[in-house]
Amino acid sequence: MTIAVNPELHPALVLNADYRPLSYYPLSLWSWQDAIKAVFLDRVNIVSEYEAAVSSPSFQMKLPSVVSLKQYIQPQRHPAFTRFNVFLRDRFECQYCTSPNDLTFDHLIPRSRGGLTTWENIVTACSPCNLRKGGKMAKDAGMMPNRKPWIPTVYDLHNAGRKFPPNFLHESWMDYLYWDAPLEP
Ligand SMILES: [Zn+2]
Fold it and tell me: What span, in angstroms and rounded, lies between the C-alpha atoms of 9 and 93?
């Protein structure tokens, strides 16, 4: 689940006004054109720069590598219940066998028994596990998910997203990506 980023395009990491990335997955990045436009519209501060610059006869400017919004954007407290966010909560792994392949959804309490399509009743599952469990209850099938499904906070999804960094991270981004991560013992 790696997002491809092309370093030659000099993307700018976009931070909220509190210096946290707007989003971790996908990482909040703007093209250098959008970053410079936002500088001129006075919407962002330049936090760090690339060596590379754009120039015209009358002016020269280094490309921003990190910008921060001048106005704080309130993050949503509860992430949307979407296929993508369920996969992200479950870290793109089958919750029965940990396979990352051929992923779909499983109703913990099957729909045929009144199970609802909600955060608390849906888990990421690979197709083989999903088939194997079929219309059975988890304990009748002998298949308990690794984690009981829950309603994630934005923070939960941010943390999950951190596990899937893009293929390129500029050195100037590192200070803003991991400083608020919980330390692993
Ligand atoms: Zn599986």
Answer: 32
Residue with tokens 């088939």: 131
Is 112 buried (19+), middle (13-18) or exposed (0-12) by CB count in 10 A? Answer: exposed
CA of 111 to the centre of ligand 1 (A): 19
Contacts of 121 (CB under 8 A, 6+ apart): 107, 108, 109, 115, 149
Q: Quick count: other Cβ atoms within 10 Å of Cβ 172?
A: 16
Radius of gyration of the chain (CA): 21
Q: Confirm whether pTM is higher than 0.85.
A: no
Confidence of residue 144 (pLDDT cuts 50, 70, 90): very high
What is the distance in A from the centroid of ligand 1 to the CA of 108?
13
Residues lining ion ligand 1 (Cβ < 5 A) are: 94, 96-97, 99, 126, 129
Total count of residues recorded for the chain: 185
Query: How far apart (Å, rounded) are the C-alpha atoms in residues 91 and 59?
Result: 46
Please tell me the predicted confidence (pLDDT) of residue 42: 98
Which residue matches tokens 């909600």?
A: 118
Q: Given a cut of 80, is residue 181 above it in pLDDT?
A: no
